[in-house]
Amino acid sequence: MERSPLWPGQALALEVQRVLYQGRSRFQDILVFDSRAHGRVLVLDGAIQVTERDEFAYQEMITHLPMFAHPRPERVLVVGGGDGGVLREVLRHDAVDKMLEKVVLCELDEDVIRVSRDYLPGVSGGALDGTNAKVSIAIMDGAAFMQQHQSQFDVIITDSSDPLGPAESLYQEPFFRSMYAALREGGIACVQGESFWLHLDLIVSVVRILRSIFDVVEYASASVPTYPSGQIGFLLCGKGTVWRNGGRPRHAARRPSEKLQRHLRYYSPEMHESAFVLPPFVEKAIAGALQHPLEAS
Predict the structure, then answer these.
(1) Can you give the pTM of this predicted structure?
(2) Domain architecture of the chain: domains with CATH
(3) Where are the beta strands (DSSP E) in 52-205?
(4) Is 129 a catalytic residue?
(5) Which of 103, 198, 282, 297 has the greatest number of C-beta atoms within 10 Å?
């Protein structure tokens, strides 16, 4: 049963058929089990991260929203994402369109990569096996990595857990400033944006920080049944003249080829556009945050 101080008074229960792995890394508790209804499940510090049944919805949207909003994403950084699902989706752009030059997975907890590779190989689809020369893995703090690699990436995707424990710093101003600095001109970042049903105040706070740094910030939404409330958001943030002159992540710069689209189960050009259509109460709250960005510290 999943409980968290981020959603007090609520819980999500999955029937466990068999525990496959249970241990503690330097940073967090890691659990993998087979469930009755959702296949194999990865849990970090008591919070569900991945289930085989619905992981594709999250992985495809957090990846392809920024990737297709950029006209030619050649250099991509994934911060977090040790299960390999986002990396799997990023590499689809190279398997079909041959446009990637370099992809870096920067994960703080090496044990998440190891456990995911051993017990959830289908999530990464071989992306973690070390055979792709364009992929490198850095085991280190994401902010430190970005500070060392300024103006190097077209797309940065932060595939983080909720802002507790080791992921808390990934929602703070210093991290976002490091992200901005690591983007190239015209680059776009995508941050896991929480649920507007449960965390609208947190979303507003993060949007205010992001808008004080980036040239454009937009919130997109997707449905993922095993995330709290069944909804998860993504914050897309642009750097550079194209965004200052009216470019918006909601307007895709490219469309999937027919071959690539055949591999996708959730993302499509139509889903890209519709993801940015929000309920009025959410739209109003985010619009207010965009009009009142955090003052520079």
Answers:
(1) 0.94
(2) 53-291 (3.40.50.150)
(3) 75-80, 102-106, 135-138, 153-159, 183-194
(4) no
(5) 103
